[in-house]
Amino acid sequence: MRIDVVTIFPGYFDALELSLMGKARDRGLIDLHVHDLRESAHDKHRTVDDTPTGGGAGMVMKPEPWGQAIDGILADAQSAPAAEPLIIFPSPAGDVFTQAMARELATEDHLVFGCGRYEGIDQRVFDEYAERGRVRLVSIGDYVLNGGEVASIAMIEAIGRLLPGVVGNPDSLVEESHESGLLEYPSYTKPAEWRGRRVPDVLLSGNHAAIDAWRHEQSVERTRHVRPDLLGD
Ligand code: 6GU
To answer: Residue 228, SS3?
Structure first.
């Protein structure tokens, strides 16, 4: 999968050089390109924001640097064999990102993340690219971040780990929280006793049917307690 990111803080995305995401990039499974929006701003101060038209607090990101940056990415994509890119603007006003959305986005060939800062990006940028292609506004939850960078990293990691070959043992994708619609059961390792706390006997029993049943029961109980909304009852 190709992923382009447009941001005024490229350094945030250094985190994607670590761990599983870093290995996936080294192995060519994820082709990540981070673009500094300021390189598409041409005045002396490389200005990317301005005051809101009509008045109000804060600053709004100007359309021209965004237009140049995204046009460049789209022109580049046209010379490649991949399918039409999907442009994602992280925004607290977007559709809420879920595991189901991660699975859907993991089937795309090319994602472009446009990271807004300040009070947001001039609306005409969304309108322009929605008319020319596919655009989605996506929120990672009901709270406010300072910009789209941390949200993009969260989405890229959630999507990236679903790409074939990124996670070594695909079984570990199946048993996780949210894949089954339930939260994950509690996990234990050795030693069998630590500070007087014993691993549940069933896990030491070698009875795999009993272990599966216990884990399922724990998942349901945990979900009922913490996230009853997931059970839909
Ligand atoms: Cl995608 N962006 C910002 N700035 N804040 C958020 C968010 C996104 N999702 C939740 N809060």
So the answer is: helix
Give the pLDDT mean for 161-167.
Answer: 96
CA 70 to chain centre: 19
The atom of ligand 1 lying closest to the CA of 140 is 9
pTM of the prediction?
0.95
State how far the Cα of 105 lies from the Cα of 172, in Å rounded to an integer: 20
Backbone dihedral angles phi then psi of residue 21, each to the nearest 5 degrees:
-65, -40
pLDDT, residue 179, reads 79
* Distance in angstroms (rounded) separating the CA atoms of residues 144 and 120: 12
The DSSP-derived string for 84-121 is: PPEEEEEEEEEEEP-HHHHHHHTT-SEEEEE---TT-B
* Centre of ligand 1 from the C-alpha of residue 140, in Å: 6
Q: Is 114 in the pocket of ligand 1 (CB under 6 A)?
A: no
